[in-house]
Structure formats: C-alpha cells, structure tokens
Amino acid sequence: xxxxxxxxxxxxxxxxxxxxxxxxxxxxxxxxxxxxxxxxxxxxxxxxxxxxxxxxxxxxxxxxxxxxxxxxxxxxxxxxxxxxxxxxxxxxxxxxxxxxxxxxxxxxxxxxxxxxxxxxxxxxxxxxxxxxxxxxxxxxxxxxxxxxxxxxxxxxxxxxxxxxxxxxxxxxxxxxxxxxxxxxxxxxxxxxxxxxxxxxxxxxxxxxxxxxxxxxxxxxxxxxxxxxxxxxxxxxxxxxxxxxxxxxxxxxxxxxxxxxxxxxxxxxxxxxxxxxxxxxxxxxxxxxxxxxxxxxxxxxxxxxxxxxxxxxxxxxxxxxxxxxxxxxxxxxxxxxxxxxxxxxxxxxxxxxxxxxxxxxxxxxxxxxxxxx
Amino acid sequence: xxxxxxxxxxxxxxxxxxxxxxxxxxxxxxxxxxxxxxxxxxxxxxxxxxxxxxxxxxxxxxxxxxxxxxxxxxxxxxxxxxxxxxxxxxxxxxxxxxxxxxxxxxxxxxxxxxxxxxxxxxxxx
Lengths: 372, 125
Fold this sequence. Notes:
A: 372 residues; Elongation Factor Tu (Ef-tu), domain 3; six-stranded antiparallel barrel; 22% helix; globular; B: alpha+beta; CATH 2.40.50.100
C-alpha cells in the first residue's frame, strides 16, 4: 500500500485527539469530539475543517479559457475575475471525470479545485487533452501546473463564520457575495478567501501557502473559541453535505453517471459551444434520462446505506448512493438513483436492508436548506 | 474501562454471567471506535442463538457493525430503550446501554478476561 499523505495540520489533529482515517490517499481527521456535535456546531455556530487534501490545478495562458471551455460542462467564458463556478468534467460518454470549482484569477489564469482522490486522474486526463490540442496545431497555448502540494486549504463554515473571520481579517467580508473571492491577509499571511463551501451553510474557504496553514488554523480557532467554533472532521463534512444534498464523487457521481441523471443540468451550458461529453449528454436528453437521483425518507426503522438496493413491488428499481441519520432533521434519509418513471415525489419504495424490504418514500431535495 | 466481572470477545462484545443468565453488550472500545450510535437492531425475544451468530446490528454515523453472540442460548429480553435512544450505547455501554439478556446454554470457549481483552485492544491500536 502507498504511504498515506498528511496535511500540514496533521500534528494539530493529533493534539486535538482526532480519530484519523484514510480518505482519497490522505490520512485525515474523521472526527474530534464527535460527528454529531461537530455537525451541530456548523449548523448553529461554526466549524473549521482541514481540507488541504483537495487538489489545486493552475491553468495559465492565452489558451486557458478555450481549453477549459472544451473540457468542462459549465460556461467559463461568462465568468468575471473574482468569481467561482461549479462545473462537471465529463468523458465523451457523458460520465463524470470529476466535479470541481473553477476560480477565475484573471483573464488568462484559472484555478481548478478538484477532489483529492481524483486529482491524479484529473491531471492525466487534462494532460492528455492538452497534448491532443497542441498536436492539433492549436496556436493558443497555456500551461498547467499541479500546485496541490504548495496550497493549504481551510473551510470555515456556519452562521458565525463571517463574524469569526472578520475578527482576524480586515477585508470587507460583508460585501463578498456567494461564489466570489477576494485576496486579503490573515496574521500577515496572504490568503484567497471565497464564499463557498460544502455544508449547506454560509461560510468561506481559505487558500494559502501550505506551510502557513497551522498558523492561520490557530488564529481562527482562537477567534472562534468564544463563539462556539469547533474543529470539524470529514465525518461532519459528509453528514452536512448529505443533508444539503450536495453530490459526493464516488457516491452520487462517477464515470458511469451523467450530470443529467444527477440532476445537475444547471451546470451544463448547452449554448456555449462544443465540450467533451456534450454529444452524449444531448443524446441522453433527447432519448430520455433513464434514471434520476432522488431523496429518500424512511417510513420504517432503518438507515439506507450506499449500495443497498431500492425496490418497488419486489423488483429492483435502483440503488442507494448515500444514506445516514441526518442530525439536523433527526431522520434517517438517503440519496439514490431510481428508474425515471419511479422518480415521483411520495412514491413508496423499499430499501433492501440486510435482506429485508424496509419502506421508504421518495422525498424532496435538499433535505436541509438554511434560512436566509 | 473493562470491568473485571465481565468476559469479552475479540469482536468487542461483553457478557455478564450470573448463573444461567447472561447479559450482553458492546465494550467501551467498541462504542468509542464506532462514534455516535444512531441505530440499533435487536433480535426477537425467544430467538435461539449459537456462539458467534449475529444477534443484531449497531449503526453509528460512520459505520454499520454486526454484533455476535458470546454464547449459545435463548434471548429472554432486549433493551428496548435503545430503539429510541441509541446514544445510551455511547453514554453507558456497560449499564443503560446493554443489548440483550439470554438464558445461557454454553459460553464461547474463547472468551477473554478483562486483562486479556485490554491487551488485545492495545494490539488493535
């Protein structure tokens, strides 16, 4: 087995008594005090996450934009500098290579933030496409750099995130809109702060040079201590994103699932010109989407878990992709794919749990939406 | 952490034997490894169990864990308060968080004492 990678915060996690687990090739904290307690902190006050494991790829040069337009489903040309968008990256089959964030730093410079476990796959895929374009005599050139090891990333999430961050950063955070970023300083260290996150709460993601991450982590912990901020692990990150029905690659997304099936057509820019996967996706849209991602609420005792079969009248109609006890809602909920003709609200289905058909119904997504 | 009056399995169950009666639960180590317990499935009263047979399931936020019987015998009672309050398993694994009561026929021949279990757990970490 490969040696697991460690983030610059590894020693902090041990000091805090975190339980460490393998995730995407990294040794990461799954919880400190407890997943539910950390989950509640993010919903009511704030939580601080080490997400240094995420991958960062920099794409620079006059050809950067047209390259990104050709490999991503969303429309990068519509972005302003200082903006962030969510996009899928697809295979020509329409299946998903990865889901990612695009940061437009300036007209010729973009940052892609990708899943840790997919980073090398993404890099190889993009490199292959770059080589192909270059050999096709595409004059506009660009360079691509994997800067994941140089970049640290913290996520400060929760209703008090802005207040806490304002205590250590002079930037005008009030004016920073959702999916926008700014450059500022924390404790004299340059940071890029975006109003983004993966929890369903307001919050920020803070990018900085990797070796300074522990310093900024400490600053934020100190600033948030009186306000109920807790360090939060990957366990809470998962239950939070699950309640907000944000997809997780390897569960709701993979190479055999299309963005249309996942309900992510909003992030497919049909009008922008050609991109990898467009033809297959158009075909699927015209022919009819065979299965859809739905929310599941248990009607009987049991927790739906990834991989469990979904049945209707004893016939398999799909599979659970994520499921858990949802702490904010105090309910056992699931996400899963079912045949499109069964994807109707309140449709009663069964989850096959340890060989028993347990009743559930298809329910509205997202399960949790914060009040504004 | 591991009371001396109990016997333990390598799958992290404990059993308290009093004459013919046995009370079964999961250990402090098990509850700590699982984290927040959110669901418990218990057998029906009257069910016959063999040594090592699955007697129920404990689910935490992050894992689903089968629980195995440390003895053969018949289930005489189950802790129904766990159905609505599974967190009792975290709070009090040797008390309020007990799982089932059995009429014991035969104990697992490989049960560990408290000291042996403690050594075993130290090796797991």
